[in-house]
Amino acid sequence: MEMPSHADEERRLLVAEIRRFVERAVLPAAQQLEHEDRYPSELVEELRRLGLFAATIPESYGGLGLDLLTYVQLIEELARGWMSLAGIVNTHILVAALITQYGTEEQRQRFLPVMAEGRRRGALCLSEAEAGSDVQAIRMTAMRDGESYLLNGAKLWVTNGVHARILAVLARTDPQAQPSYRGMSLFLVEKETPGLHVGRTFAKLGYKGVDTAELVFEEVRVPAANLLGGVEGQGFKQAMSGLEIGRLNVAARAVGLARAAFEDAIRYAQQRRTFGQPIAEHQAIQLKLADMYTEIEAARLLLHEAARKKDAGGRCDLEIGMAKLFATEMCQRVTLEALRIHGGFGYVKEFNVERYYRDAPFMLIGEGTSEIQRLIIARQLLQRYALDKQPS
Predict the structure, then answer these.
(1) Helices (H), ranges, the chain
(2) At what angle do helices 317-342 and 353-365 cross, to 10 degrees?
(3) Residues catalogued as catalytic
(4) SS3 track for 306-339
(5) Is the four-CA dihedral 53, 57, 59, 62 of positive or negative sign?
(6) Which pLDDT band holds residue 316 (cuts at 50, 70, 90)?
(7) For an engineered disulfide with 81, which of 22, 292, 321, 331 has Cβ 3.0 to 4.6 Å away?
(8) Is 259 helix (H, G, I), strand (E, B) or coil?
(9) What confidence tens digit (pLDDT) does each residue in 3-19 have?
(10) What pLDDT is stored for residue 132 in this prediction?
(11) Cα–Cα distance between 294 and 380 in angstroms, integer?
C-alpha cells in the first residue's frame, strides 16, 4: 500500500481548514448575503487571512506556492458553501498566474507580493459588448505614446470589476494585424489610473454578491513597463493560457455547487415522508440520487486529472475543456434534480436549493461556453486522431 506523501498530507490539512471555515462562517451567512446581493466584505477578509488569494503565487513572491490540484480542491470546498466566493478568488488567481508565467521579473516583483497579501486583488478584462466568445473581435485599443500607452474602449462582464485593483486588460496594439490576434497585448492597469471608471454594474439571475461590471477606459495612460512580458502581440496567447486556470476554477465550482445540492437533497429525502415512508425509500428518488452522485464523482475525477496535467506543464486544453464541459453541464442537471426532490419547497427562497438552481447556469457560460469547450475538444481530437496522409 502506497503511503501518502508530504504533499498529500499538506493538501488534506489545507482542504480541511477551508471546510471548517465554510461550516463556521460561510454556510450561516450565505443565504442572507445572496438574497441581499451584498458584497461579502467580512468573508473576503477571512479568505485573505487564510491565504486563499496567495494560493498559487510562488513562495518567492510571498505566496503559498500551491499546485493546481490542491487549488481546485480548495475551490470545491468554498463553492459548496457559496459559489460566489470562489468567483471572487478566481480572477485574482488568474491574473496572478498570468504575471507569474508571462511577466517580466520587474512586474513579478512589483505586483505579486501585494497580490499575495490579498489587499489588492485582480480582475481579467477580456469581453466587450461585441466580443464574448469571439475574443479576436475586441475593439479596445492601446496606442503607444512615448513611454506609455493610451487605452481607449470598454470592457464588459468584468468579475470583481468594482473591488479589484489590478486589472489585466486585453487591447489592440496593432489594429491592422492579420490575423487580428497577432496585434493584441495584455496590460496591467491599476484601478486608480485617471480615465478609468465603472460604467455600470449588472443585476444577475444568480452569482450574486460578487460584482459584475462594465469598465470604461478613456485616454487611460499606462506605463510601457506595464505591458505584460514587455513585448507587443503576445496578449491573445497569454489570455487564452490564463483562461485554462479560470476553467479549472469554474469546473471546481460546479463540483462544489453540485455537491451542496446533492447533500441537501439526500438529507431532505430521508426526512420528507409520503405514503407513510421517507421519499428516499421510493425507487424513483433513489435512481435520481444514484445518478447525481455518480456524475459528481465523474466530474471530480476529470477535474483532478486536468489539474494534474496543467501542473505537469505542456498542452492540456483538451483535458481542461472536458472537465469544464462535463462538470458544468453536470451541475445544471444535479441542481435541477435536487429542486425536484424538494418538490414545492425547492422553489421557495427558504431553502438553499433554489439558490443552487439559479447559480448553476452561470458556469455554463463563464470562462467559455459549453459550445466553445466542445469545439476545443473536437479540434484536439481531430489532431490526435488525424488520418495518416502518407500512402499506406
Answers:
(1) 6-21, 27-36, 41-50, 68-81, 83-102, 105-117, 235-271, 283-312, 317-342, 353-365, 370-384
(2) 160
(3) 367
(4) HHHHHHHCCCCHHHHHHHHHHHHHHHHHHHHHHH
(5) negative
(6) very high
(7) 22
(8) helix
(9) 456 667 888 899 999 99
(10) 82
(11) 27
User: Please, what is the average pLDDT of the chain?
Assistant: 95
**Nearest CA among 116, 121, 124 for reference residue 50:** 116
pLDDT tens column, 246-297: 999 999 999 999 999 999 999 999 999 999 999 999 999 999 999 999 999 9
The DSSP line for 213-234 is EEEEEEEEEEEGGGBGGG-TT-
Radius of gyration of the chain (CA): 22
Return the axis-axis angle of helices 283-312 and 317-342, rounded to nearest 10°: 160
Q: How far apart are CA 37 and CA 347, in angstroms?
A: 19
Q: pTM (2 decimals)?
A: 0.94
Contact (Cβ atoms closer than 8 angstroms) between residue 61 and residue 111: no
Q: How many CA atoms lie within 13 A of 376 on its CB side?
A: 23
Cell numbers at 110, concatenated: 512589483
207-230 tens-digit pLDDT: 999 999 999 999 999 999 999 999
Instruction: Please give the DSSP secondary-structure letter assigned to residue 169.
Output: E
Predicted local distance difference test score (pLDDT) of residue 3 = 46
CA quadruple 334, 338, 343, 346: dihedral, nearest 10: -110
Nearby residues of 335 by Cβ (< 8 Å), 6 or more positions away:
257, 258, 261, 353, 356, 357, 359, 360
Report the distance separating Cα 320 and Cα 248, nearest Å: 7
Q: Are 152 and 218 in contact (CB under 8 A)?
A: yes
Closest CA to 262 of 288, 299, 224, 238: 288
**For residues 195 and 220, what is the distance between their CA atoms, to the nearest angstrom?**
5
Identify whether the C-beta of residue 245 lies closer than 8 Å to the C-beta of residue 97. Answer: yes
Q: Which three cell numbers stand for residue 369?
A: 461556453
Pairing of strands 166-172, 122-125: parallel
80, 26 contact by CB (below 8 A): no
Distances (CA, A) of 71 to 180, 227, 300, 304, 310: 34, 28, 13, 10, 12
Cell output for 192: 486608480
